[in-house]
Amino acid sequence: MVGEYSYCPVEAKHYLKNKVSHCCWSPRTDLIALGSLNGRVSVHRYKLACIWESLPPHQNSVVTCVVWRPDGKCLAVAYDSGHVRLILANDGFVYKEFQYPRSITFLNWTAGLLTKQEGKGSNAPIYFPDLSSLTMFQSDVNFNTSDTFKLSQLLADSEEHFFILTVYCAGVLNFYGSDSFLIARWACKPNLLSTELQFKFLGCQFSACLKYLLILYSWTEETTGRSFMELQWVPTTGLVTFGTQLRNLSMHHSLIRISKTLLDKGFDQICTSWEDMILEMDVKFTNYAKERLSRNKKWSLGVELLEFILFGNCPTSLRKFLVEDWTAPSLKRTGTATLKAYESIKTICFQQLQLILQRLLFHTSELLGNLRDTQSYAKFGVSVKQASRLCGTIGCVLQKSQELHLVIEKSITHLRAFFKWLYVAILGLSGRVLPDDFPRVTPAERELVIDFITNYLQPVFVQGSLQSFSVDLVEQYIRPGEVRKPLEAVSAHSLNEDRSRSHMRTLIHLSEEQLKSGRFPTGLFHYCPKATLADLIMHTLEDDITTLFGPPAAGDFDRACFGFAESVSQLLFCEQLQKSCVFDPAWDFCSQFPAVFTGDSRLRNSPTDSNRQSTYLAWSPSRTELLLTEFPFDLTKTNLHGGRTACLEVDDIPMVPNPNQLAYEIQDLEFFTPELLTLLLRQTTRTSNSETTEEPSSTSHIVMVPVQLLLAACDEGSSSTPVSTACEPLWSSSNCHLPAKRLSELITSAHVESLPCTATKLATNGGRSILFVLFEGSCMCRVYLLDCPETDGSVVRDDGEDGVGDAVMEAGDSDVVENVT
C-alpha cells in the first residue's frame, strides 16, 4: 500500500551545536540545510556530518527562512535583520546578497517551465575562454582564486531552467528571475478583509503550470474573537506566455551582474597590487618626513632629494636615513618586490580586466539585440536607449583601462630609475667602493629620477597633517576624482593616434566631425578624458546597469506577467476559537512538476498526473482536522472552487494504545511526495492528580497519509457537496459540507512511526526517502531512512543517481545503509 515504510534511524544527535530554527532538504541530493537561532547556517549530509557553516551578516541575526533552489545547486537564507543571502550549496560561498528594511518572513524558489530549445542560454563560451583556465587573482585580503573560480562557474552556467525567487517582507511580495532580476513587486492584502485589521501572510506557491499564484492569509477579529483563513488566486499567465523573454532578460541580468562583480574585484586587485608596490617606500618616506616636519614646517622631501641628486648635497639626517634606516639590502628587497608587484598587475590584473570588460560588452550587446525586437520585449520596461548607453560606458572603461596600463608603464619606468639611483647612492654614502663593472645611473635615468621627484612623488596632507606619499600619475586613475594630467604627459602617442588605433573604431569609419555630432548618440565610442577609471567602474557603470534593469523605487511594479488587479479569493476557514488559543494554522503546498524535477524514479508521478500538473494545499486550522485541496491544471477565476477538497479527522492511530482517548494534534505537516503527506502528530498526557506539579508528558508520531486515497472520499460524496461561495467558509466545525474521512480508517500501522520523545518539526526528502525530525528544545534531532517492503519480504532501496546509496536489506535487518556518495 502507498505510504507503508519501515523506518531505519541512521543518525541521532542529542546535542546539536546550534539551536535549529529551520530545516530543509535539498530537492536533488541527500543534503540538509539547518538554520539556527544564532544566525548560523550549515549544510549536512544525511548522517549529519557538517560540510560547511556560514556566519550571520550581523552578530545577533536570527535565521527566519531557508529554501533550496529546485536544481539543488544553491540555497537562499533570510534573516530577521532584513538580509537575504544566496549561497552555493557545495561550499557556502555567498554570491548574492539583498538588503530589506525589515525582517524576511517568507522565501520560496520555483522552477519555470521551459523546453531545452527555449533555454539555450548565452553563446559567450564560443567566443571567450573559461575564466578558470586563466591566471587567477592572488589576494588574501579582498578576493582569492577560489572565489574567482566560483563566480566564473556561475558565469559559465547557462541556466537551462528559469527560476523565480519569491521574497516577502513587510507586506510586500518581491519576485526575482534568475536570482536577481526583479520581475514584480506587490503590496499584497486579503480581498475579504474589509477593515484595517492586521493580517498575517502565511505563504504562497506558484501552481505547477505556472499560470496562477496561490496566497494564504490569516487574521483574527479582536471584537468577535473569530479567526479567518483566506486563499487568494492571482493569475500569472504572463510567466508562461512570455517565459522565454523573461528568461532571456533574467539570464542576461545575471551574467551582467556577475561580470560586474568580477570587474569590481579585478579593479580592487589592481589598487591593492599598486599599493603593495609603493607601501614600503611610502612608509619609509612618511616616517622620515614626519620627523623632519616636526622640527621644520617648511621642510620638503622633494627639495631635499633634488639637492642631493643635482648638487650632491646630502644632509646628515638624510644620510642617516638612507644608510642606517633604509639600508642597501632593504632597498634592494623593496625594489624587487615593487617590480614583482608590477608584473602581477601587468600579467594578471589587466588580463582579467580586459577579458571581463569584453565579456561584459558581449552580454550587453546580446541583450541589446534582444531588446531591439520591440514587439517581444517592449512590455518589460528595459530600454533600448539605456542598453546602448551601457555599451558606450563599457567602451569608455575599456579605453580608460588602456590609459591606466600606459600610465603604470610610465610610472614603473620612473620607479625603476629611482630605486637604482637610491641604491647606488646608499652604497656611495656607506663608503663602499663600487667596482668598475657596477651598473651606473645613466643621464637618461637621472632625468627620469628628477622628473619623478618633481612631478609625481606627491605628499598627501589631511587637515594639515602629513598622511602619506602617492605616485600622482597612478593615483589619479585608481582614486575617485578626475584625471588632472593628460595622457600625452604619459605616453608618446597622442589621443588622436590612440583613437585611430582602437580596433572598435575601425569597425565603423566615422570622421571626427561625425563623432562629435549631436546626431550620433553617446554610444560605444564615447570618451571622457577627465574621468577616472575608479569613477567609471564604481559609479558610472554601476548606475547605468541599475538604470537599465531597475524598476521604480517604490510602489507596485509588474513586467506584464502578473494580474494582481484580477485576483479573487476564497474564504477557507471562519470560526471563533477559545481565548486561550493562538490561531496558528499549519499548511503546506505541493506542485506536481514535470518528471525532470523529480529525483527518484520510483516515486515519480504517473504520466497522467504529470500531464495534469495538479497543485495541492494541505491545511489544518484547528490542528485536530486536516483539509486537503487539489487545484486542477486549468484553474481560472471562474472555476476557482472546482478543485477537490477532502477533510481528515485525526481521531486515532492504528496499533497505538490510547486508553484515555486523548486527542492528537497536528504539530507539523509536509508533503513527502505529491502522493504522500507526512504528519507529525502530538499527544499530550495530562496527570489526573490536580495537586501534582509534574509537567504534562507528550508523545509524537509520524504518519504517512496517502493523498489520492483521501481525495477519493471527495469523489464519493461529490454529488451531495454544494459549491462554496467566496465569502462562505470552505470548512468550519459547526457547518462543514465537505466529505470527511477518519485517520484510523485511512491508514494502517505500517503508515506510522512512533518517536522516542516529543518532536516539534520535520523535514522530508521524498526523492531520497529520508526524513529529519527535530525534537523539543531544538537541540536534538534524528534522521530516518525509509524503506518500502516488497511482497517477498525484502526491503528495496533505489535512490537513483546522487542519492544516499543503493542497497538491499532483508526484513528485520537493522544495519544502517553505509554507502554514501
Automatic annotation (TrEMBL):
Does the entry feature the keyword Secreted, yes or no? no
* Single GO biological process annotation from the record: protein K11-linked ubiquitination
Segments forming domain Anaphase-promoting complex subunit 4 long: 243-429
Show the SUPFAM superfamilies listed in the entry: WD40 repeat-like (SSF50978)
Does the keyword section mention Hydrolase? no
What cellular component terms from Gene Ontology apply here? Answer: anaphase-promoting complex; nuclear periphery
List keywords of the entry alphabetically.
Answer: Cell cycle, Cell division, Mitosis, Ubl conjugation pathway
Please state every residue range assigned to the domain named Anaphase-promoting complex subunit 4-like WD40: 24-110
Q: Name one Pfam family in it.
A: ANAPC4_WD40
Protein name, as recorded: Anaphase-promoting complex subunit 4
Q: Which organism is it from?
A: Clonorchis sinensis
